[in-house]
Amino acid sequence: MRRLSLLIIIASALMTTACNPKAQTSGIDVTNLDTSVSPKVDFYQYACGGWMQKNPLTGEYARFGSFDKLAEDNREQLNGLIKDIASKVSEKGAIEQKIGDIYNLAMDSIKLNEDGYTPVKADLERVASIKDKSELSVVIPELLLSDIGAYFSIYVDADPANSSQYLLQTYQGGISLGEREYYLDNDEHSVGIRNKYKEHVAKMFELTGFTPKQAQKNTEAVLRIETRLATTAYDKVKLRDPYANYNKISVEELRKLISSIDWNSYFTTLGLENVNELNVSQKESLVEVGNIIASEPLDAQIAYIQWKVIDSAASYLSDDIYAQNFDFYGKTLSGKETQSPRWKRAVSSVNSMLGEAVGQMYVKQYFSPEAKERMIKLVRNLQTTLGQRIEVLTWMSDETKAKAKEKLDAFYVKIGYPDKWRDYSALNIEKDSYYENVKRANRFEYAYMLAKAGKLVDKDEWQMTPQTVNAYYNPSTNEICFPAGILQYPFFDMKADDAFNYGAIGVVIGHEMTHGFDDQGRQFDKDGNLKDWWTKEDATRFEERAKVMADFFDTIEVTPGVHGNGKFTLGENIADHGGLQVAYQAFQTVAQGTPLAHKDGFTPEQRFFLAYATVWAGNIRPEEILVRTKSDPHSLGRWRVNGALPHIAAWYEAFDVQEGDPQFVSVEKRVSIW
Ligand SMILES: [Zn+2]
Fold first, then answer.
1. Which key words tag this protein in UniProt (predicted)?
2. What is the pLDDT of residues 506-517, one digit of tens each?
3. CA 504 to ligand 1 center in whole angstroms
């Protein structure tokens, strides 16, 4: 729900002056290449063909790329740490006891299967015992504290209009299929998913103690209520408009707006006292929640809420329930063939429940202070270069450039891991059941978040754990963050020289940075407040240039007969373009002082682009190409390379690409923004 720009990317640290460049490697693994293809004909195949052959898709994955491979390695490392702890007896209350007990409960298939759906029984009975709709104002928030989101949810984040202050905010939800289109569209694919979903809901009711007849009846109610929620839910485009999602009102106004919920009971149950105001992020959606509560029969609402309980618990119960859950969400919805092994799921659970405790152990072992220091230098170099490039832009007015400069200088940079760590002493982990502990951990997290409402924003808090293989830009704090998990090969390599590291993690950093200044970033000022700081003319000139990019990606055929969506992927394609331009120039500046040699048969410039391409190496199923073309604002890996590089002059020089070569784009048709 936070407005983070994730990258699915990475960062790597970089390096330089401290090391002797002659001793550094090229970082290029020549077995990743497919030299049977010319780089002038198909650069992606040339740079990544060997990688693709070495890393075929397994049943567990719909797409598997460099990023996923790193996440797999990362999981192995975490498993080593966690398994070791779990094999020893620890003192009750110690962090080792908590990590060990969660892991062991997740791994104990005998107990999970013996328990069946028993762990969830009390919650189902609690919901069944509701006698009057007024009780919903207690039960809904009570379940939300365990992260069971019926109808809508509540969270705390910076007030978009007053970014130094935390604000309570509502968010639409309550539909298990996630995307509203699955409930509303009538194309063959959506109808098929909907029908399978109905079967799935009914089967899950049966697996948790309901008769087939009750299960059928409950399923009808679930579909009807979720379809109502989907109908008023904001679509993807509207959710991206920060103004459309900002409606700060008083609790007094909220009471008038939605009278079927007793807001006093609701907030008291959440443990919130003295709530005066909140942001109703999607107003019409929340109003419809009120209508549903008022108009739907109580037994239908009980069925719907019970479904939320079952759906949330499914991953933590017996194997038959888990298998049914995977059959729908994994196979039908995502095209996966096989479940992840139990140990991977156990590691993920420990990771999400005790993220910073695990993270603290992880960085001690896998992230050095030297890596952090080098990353800081790399980020600073890119920051300086982006400033220089903004200075000479012809489409941005001087007035806007001055504001952009201020925003760039105000960047808050986070690398590796937080300076202060979360305290988990108030989280109690028992040996009763896996599910009970998942709920305890969720309650611990929710209480922590809700306690922030109305307080000053803590900019030092991290929105990702250090072991995460990803990176983000957060507009409300104007911060960029590169966790330790992503600062590894092939994104970052301490042993490799600047050509490699600027081409890989450097481009990722540049990508994240430009998000602070593009059509999304322009809506938030240097302090993170919702405020457009561009002039109208800047916007017009930006759009003219952006159109060149959108038109180019529209022409790309991602699979026979299907084209890319240039408008939908525009923001991310521009960020890749900006990241390449900024990182390349920063690399050239650094290399001026200490020129790099040819290594492994490649010039430094060639290695820069090869390292970039390797970040996007991957294999993908044809079904997944279709899914992502519809749902992912990032272009597919192949086109983040073959679509991006033909707009970069230095790439033509590095590989001597000439007019007449298949990837050649004439100078007047190339994009020029950052
Ligand atoms: Zn991005």
1. Hydrolase, Metal-binding, Metalloprotease, Protease, Zinc
2. 999 999 999 998
3. 15
Q: The tokens of 582 are what?
A: 């900024």
C-alpha of residue 512 to centroid of ligand 1, in Å? 6
Ligand 1 centroid – CA 395 distance (Å): 22
How far is ligand 1, taken at its centre, from the CA of residue 570, in Å? 10
Locate the domains of the chain by residue range: 30-54+367-418+462-669, 121-316
Q: What is the pLDDT of residues 431-484, one digit of tens each?
A: 999 999 999 999 999 999 999 999 999 999 999 999 998 888 999 999 999 999
From ligand 1's centre to the CA of 633, what distance in Å? 9
* Cα distances (angstroms) measured from residue 317 to each of 110, 146, 215: 11, 16, 19
Q: How much is the pLDDT for 17?
A: 31
Task: Kindly give the distance from the C-alpha atom of residue 5 to the centroid of ligand 1, in angstroms, as a whole number.
Answer: 6
Mean pLDDT computed over 71-91: 94
Q: What is 30-54+367-418+462-669's CATH number, 3.30.1370.10, 3.20.20.210, 3.40.390.10, 3.10.290.10?
A: 3.40.390.10
288-327 as b/e: b if 16+ CB within 10 A: bbbebbeebeeebbbbbbbbbbbbbbbbbbbeebbebbbb
**Residue 25: what residue type?**
T
Distance 579 CA to ligand 1 centre (A): 10
pLDDT, tens only, 251-295: 999 999 999 999 999 999 999 988 999 999 999 999 999 999 999
- Going from the Cα of 423 to the center of ligand 1, the distance in angstroms, rounded, reads 31
What is the maximum span of the chain, computed from C-alpha positions, in angstroms? 77
Contact 635, 564 (CB under 8 A): yes
Residues with CB under 5 A from ligand 1 (ion): 5, 7, 572, 575
Please tell me the distance between residue 469's alpha carbon and the centre of ligand 1 in angstroms: 15
Distance 575 CA to ligand 1 centre (A): 6
How far away, in angstroms, is 390 Cα from ligand 1 center? 19
Q: Is the pLDDT of residue 14 over 70?
A: no
Task: Tell me the fold of 121-316.
Answer: Neutral endopeptidase; domain 2 (1.10.1380)
For residue 4, how far is its CA from the centre of ligand 1 (angstroms)?
A: 9
C-alpha of residue 3 to centroid of ligand 1, in Å: 12
Contacts of residue 505, Cβ cutoff 8 Å, sequence gap at least 6: 10, 11, 12, 13, 14, 375, 378, 482, 486, 487, 491, 492
Q: What is the pLDDT of residue 11?
A: 27
| pLDDT beyond 70 at 10 | no
**Total number of residues shown for the chain:** 674
